[in-house]
Write a structure and sequence with these properties.
Elements lengths: L9 H31 L3 E3 H25 L5 E5 L5 E4 L1 H17 L4 E4 L18 H6 L5 E3 L3 E9 L1 H5 L7 E8 L2 E8 L6 E5 L3 E2 L2 E2 L10 E4 L6 H9 L5 E4 L2 H6 L2 E2 L13 E4 L3 E2 H13 L3 E3 L13 E2 L3 E4 L4 H7 L9
Parallel strand pairs: 4-6, 12-13, 12-15
Antiparallel strand pairs: 1-5, 2-3, 6-7, 7-8, 8-9, 9-10, 11-14, 15-19, 16-18, 17-19
Helix pairs in contact: 2-3
């Protein structure tokens, strides 16, 4: 209440309040504006850092895979059957590898979408990238290549070739990480837990892999799945002739490595193929890493019709695939018979 004899003018009070608000706005407008701009600014991720973290995740997952196999504590069970009737198996190796790989990538890059073949409710907040970029990656590429986090999808396969893993055919087993940007594969990591070798590539930046010096396409040596082959033998012979050599192997990651020049050493010999063909349904976590590796080396992985595969959205891709490097991919596609994978 105003002192007796003094009356406050409503207009004066209003003007005083407006002046006060104006002063406060002038003082804090810059702070408010900068905070709003920061809120609106899209978060970016550095691809070199994402590559290094992907390599680390694949290696750590591989250690879990190897430990479970060496100790023979697989605890295998069936997740169901594929369209061709083969069992889809889950082992303790799959699960422990998933926990390491998924949590490391999810905790380190919380803004990106991470999709794994396996699912688990265990959250390990301690699993984070070590922030170490391997020397061979530092030597081959510069940092600062950033992309919007919302454009990134990370596909991880904690244990590729689980069927072969249960049979102790460990040369086929890999752990894989792939980074797709706007649906296009740009980072591929394929780790072999039982040899310790890791293949990696960042498209347009560098890779520790290379194509072989020579390939044959008259006819090619074709590598296919040993457990999901469907009617692929007759399909390939229709395309390239009855004398075509066909290699049956486990694991999509292994099949991509069979197209490349493996480094010298005393590691177990890997099959050498000229073309990788798959005519049934397949999941993107199986093939995305290989697609990135091949793309980085000038190769291709397409559907049977020659279409690019979109590595975003749902995991299933239904168009089959043809993978090659160092050969005329289009010429291979032109020899393939018409095929509808939905008829499997």
């Amino acid at each position: 209440m105003a002192p007796m004899g003094i009356r406050l003018s409503p207009l004066g009070v209003a003007v005083f309040c407006l002046v006060g608000v104006g002063i406060l706005y002038h003082l804090y407008a810059e702070v408010i504006s900068s905070r709003l701009a920061a809120f609106r600014r899209k978060k970016n991720v550095d691809l070199r850092e994402l590559l290094a973290a992907s390599v680390e995740a694949a290696v750590l997952g591989g250690k879990e895979v190897k430990k479970v196999r060496d100790e023979n504590i697989l605890k295998e069970k069936s997740k169901g059957k594929t369209k061709e009737g083969a069992n889809e198996l889950l082992t303790l190796g799959d699960l422990l590898s998933h926990r390491k790989m998924y949590n490391l990538l999810r905790n380190t890059f919380p803004e990106v979408t991470v999709i794994s073949e396996e699912h688990d409710n265990l959250v390990d907040q301690a699993a984070v990238w070590s922030q170490v970029i391997p020397a061979e990656i530092l030597d081959k590429m510069e940092g600062g290549k950033e992309v919007p986090a919302e454009s990134v999808t990370v596909w991880i396969d904690p244990l590729d070739a689980t069927q072969e893993y249960t049979e102790n055919l460990v040369k086929y087993v890999t752990t894989m990480v792939c980074v797709a940007v706007d649906g296009k594969p740009v980072i591929g990591v394929i780790h072999q837990p039982f040899t310790g070798f890791t293949a990696w590539a960042l498209v347009h930046q560098g890779s520790n892999m290379s194509a072989r010096s020579a390939y044959s396409v008259s006819p090619p040596k074709v590598i296919v799945s040993r457990s999901h082959s469907g009617k692929v033998r007759s399909y390939i012979q229709d395309a390239f002739g009855n004398t075509t050599a066909i290699i049956h192997a486990g694991g999509a990651g292994y099949k991509v490595l069979s197209l490349l020049q493996m480094p010298p050493g005393d590691r177990e010999a890997i099959d050498q193929a000229d073309v990788y063909i798959h005519i049934t349904f397949i999941k993107k976590w199986d093939i995305c890493a290989g697609a990135a590796l091949l793309t980085a080396l000038g190769g291709h992985m397409t559907s049977l019709k020659g279409e690019d595969i979109d590595y975003s959205g749902t995991p299933l891709t239904k168009g089959g695939l043809v993978a090659s490097v160092g050969v005329d991919h289009k010429a291979i596609l032109e020899k393939l018979p018409n095929w509808d994978p939905d008829q499997q």
